[in-house]
Amino acid sequence: MASFKTFQTFNDPGLASAIADKLKAQHIVCHVEKVEPLLEPGFFKNTVEPNIHLKVRATDLDRAHEVLEEYYEHQLQDVDPNYYLLSFTDIELLDIVAKPDEWGHFDYVLARELLAERGLPIPDETIRQMKQQRHRQLAQQSRVESFREFIRRVFRLRSPDDSR
Known about the structure:
This protein is mainly alpha-helical. It has helices at about 15-25, 60-75, 90-100, 105-115, 125-155, and strands at about 5-10, 30-35, 50-55. It has a 3-stranded antiparallel sheet with strand order 1-3-2, covered by helices on one side. α2 crosses α4 (about 105-115) and α3 crosses α4. It is globular. It starts with a strand and ends in a 7-residue tail after the last helix.
């Protein structure tokens, strides 16, 4: 059985379904899943935690990103003249290109286009290297967070008698 990974998270089930439809149109197997929060919703004040997960087969993650980037490339002519990225500096746009996971597909595609229009096109090979570097950073962060969680559990599980 294929392993599915979370591709994107949403607050809006309609938006998740619309993105899923775009992926399915390109023959990417995916499904939308509502994930229950780990803690009671009223426990924290954060009531906008995304709980709708769009999942794709792990083997299709890269292709799913490509499909959405291609889709949004065709939407660039419809950008509102007041869209917030249009006022970003080159450095801020480069940050979006370096960390697309923090911004979303549309902002990533628009940032690349704006940089190219400003005379700073980024070659595809450089983009590929930036993505690999970002994957390494995220994997390292994940290992550090897992280690921190392990340490928290170990110290939480210790009884007061163990503190010699």
